[in-house]
Amino acid sequence: MASPPPPPVDKIDSATLLNALKAFGRGDFSVRLPLNWLGMAGKVADTFNDIAEMNERLASELDRLNRVVGQQGKITQRASAAEMTGGWVDCIGSVNSLIDDLVSPTHETARVIGAVAKGDLSQSMILQADGRRLEGEFLRTAMIVNSMVDQLSSFASEVTRVVREVGTEGKLGGQAKVRRVAGTWKDLTDSVNSMAGNLADPPCCLRQSHVRRNVRRGRAGSPLPPV
Fold first, then answer.
1. What's the number of CA atoms in the CB half-sphere (13 Å) around residue 180?
2. For residues 96 and 121, what is the distance between their CA atoms, to the nearest angstrom?
């Protein structure tokens, strides 16, 4: 058998109110004051309960955003300000604005890297968002991505030029010149230049010319000239 509801109270129970405030201060937004308080005590209880409920709803919404945006990657999700007013709406707006500011550079990075993956080296990250210049880690990341694309574009352009000059136009001795390269980029550039240098090596060219001349004369087995 259910116990009977507590009798109405028209006075504030200071101990109950103090315990509720302490719990609220510790972040326990589930705490509520009794619903059987009447008069001024009832208004105090209702107001306290409304504030606690609003904080509980906000905390739940932030927890949802952390899960769906931060963990599941659903970056189109935003916090809802339903039934909220005043500063509560401003708080939700600030959270949504923060997500927008985080998502914008992410979209830009994905756009540029996606273009590079498709062979389009003409793209670069925009260094502004909503009319404001990027700052901090956002700017550093954008500069790194743009530098990477510049290196790729410069390397591809120089390799294409050397291949055209040496392989198509017969201009032996062409060398790739890629500025500010290091690491693997420098190794690749050196490899291209080494290959181009080997093709331009005079003894190599002489031997190739001798072979072609003997083939035309039907003397493919003739000995090669000394190097």
1. 7
2. 33
The verdict on residue 191 lying in a domain is no
Contact 171, 200 (CB under 8 A): no
Over the chain (227 residues), the average pLDDT of each successive run of 10 is 72 94 96 94 96 93 93 91 86 92 90 94 89 90 92 84 74 70 74 72 53 56 51
**pTM of structure:** 0.66
- Identify which of 150, 103, 151, 153 has the alpha carbon closest to the alpha carbon of residue 129: 103
Total domain count, the chain: 1
Query: Which of 120, 117, 141 has the alpha carbon at shortest distance from 129?
Result: 141
Report the candidate in 84, 85, 125 with the shortest Cα–Cα distance to residue 108. 125
Residue 28 lies in a domain: yes
C-alpha count within 13 angstroms, C-beta hemisphere, residue 13: 13
Residue range of the domain that includes 10 = 1-74
Alpha carbon distance 112, 107 (integer Å):
9
